[in-house]
Amino acid sequence: MKRLALLLVLLLAVPATAPVAAQERLVFGLSQEEVAITATFDGDDLLIFGAIARESPLPADPAQVIVTISGPTRPVTVRHKERRFGIWVNTEHVLIDAAPSYYAVATSAPLEEVLTYTEDMRYGVTLPHAIRSVGNQVLNSADYTEALMRIRGRQGFYRMMEGEVDFAESTLFRTRMTLPANLTEGAYQARILLTRNGEVVDELHAQIPVFKVGLERWLYNLAQNFAPLYGLLALSLAAFAGWAASAAFSLLRR
Amino acid sequence: MTIYLPIAEVSVSAFLLLGIGGLVGLLSGLFGVGGGFLITPLLFFVGIPPAVAVASSANQIVASSVSALLAHLRRRNVDLVMGMVLLVGGLVGSALGVVVFNILKRVGQVDLAVSLCYVVFLGIVGAMMLAESLRALLRQRAGAVPKRRRHNWVHALPFKMKFRVSGLYISVIPPLMVGLAVGVLAAIMGVGGGFIMVPAMIYLLGMPTKVVIGTSLFQILFVTAFTTMLHAVTSHSVDLVLALLLIVGGVIGAQFGTRIGARMRAEQLRILLALLVLGVCIQLGLELVLHPGDLFSIEAAR
To answer: What is the 3-state secondary structure (H, E, C) of B85-100?
Structure first.
């Protein structure tokens, strides 16, 4: 809360930087600028907080806040199983061109009060609008997108957190996002939307880099860029371990 | 304590992986098999992506076979000539297997192919082993002397060669084919192939049991090393941290296994192993036949 207060003070101190056209303006901060995946990484909590700066008196309609965090988007293949000759076999598949590896939406009230359908589509806020699938070969491709959302939702990668943004006095807001342990590397996009009557009034973006550090980073790079060297390293470690075990236990037996 | 595996990109309990390594090491010490056929399905179960599981367990088998091979070399139980012939077949097979593996991966049938291979081979080997050891047990009860090995069609093939340590004079074609088949399986299933090679060497090639395990270890070592290398270069799917945890667990487990194994009779051990192999086979078979929880599965591009 101390940080929030500080932020407010700063806001009030520099009103000159505010654009003239905007009635209301978002300011926000993150509990951390980046997420480092270490060897013992088992998930992380991200605190997103901020305030709404105003030059005019508070309008009558209540303002709402939406926070989204999106992992890097990558193509995903969704496969469907069917029974063939008594066993379950992957038959058809759909390539979804761009699906975020992680996606969480938090709102300050139930979604229908916060955002209209058209605004949702325009800004790509909720998951179905954030996933893109073009040029599908299968008729019922909606089933596949749905399956993707269901599976990633079950794994904790896709979250819908309605009403989980704490919004005090139409000015201060904060929310906590849980990042799972099996995080994909990349630039994560944090987005804050300010809405009124379901219409987006202001939008802010920030990037949160998520990356492996230390040994994890080194091993991954080696495996990707110096594959033969990595293979040899793996083999010599294995051979050494095998030899060491044999030597150690023959010593013990004596 | 969870640990983040850099290549698999999943976070798993380190103790769980040590435990899996230890369990498989225990069994390998007990039964004299590499245990790859257990490690790969167990890793699937823990949530390691199949490609990483297969490639990393190949790396783990390198370690356990080095350790066991050294012991057999000291006792001079290795037919190096036979090992070389098997190896030539094995390397060709392994290269073929990695090509097949990558094709299957592209068409999305890796899981199915690996499971099918497991069900078929574990089923055949487990059933044969069970029948054979039950027969041996019964024969022993009856007090009969085990028969000497017979001549079969293998001895009628051309390109004969002398294998002094095994005391054999047979064609090189059968060992080459055995090596080839095991190489393919090593690459696709992430196993050393001992559970297929050992029966093939005894029943098909007629090698004396004494040198079979040492010789198969020799072949397994080089084939899995080659497979590890190929997987590392073609699909970047060898996870060193995962492999190391499995190795450490395996080394410790194997020592306990050897101690326990020394107190049990060979036939009993083989019946137990046969039951274990059949158990894994049935488990994997059921997964293919029963209705899956979710008909859809996803795979992200890396």
So the answer is: HHHHHHHHHHHHHHHH
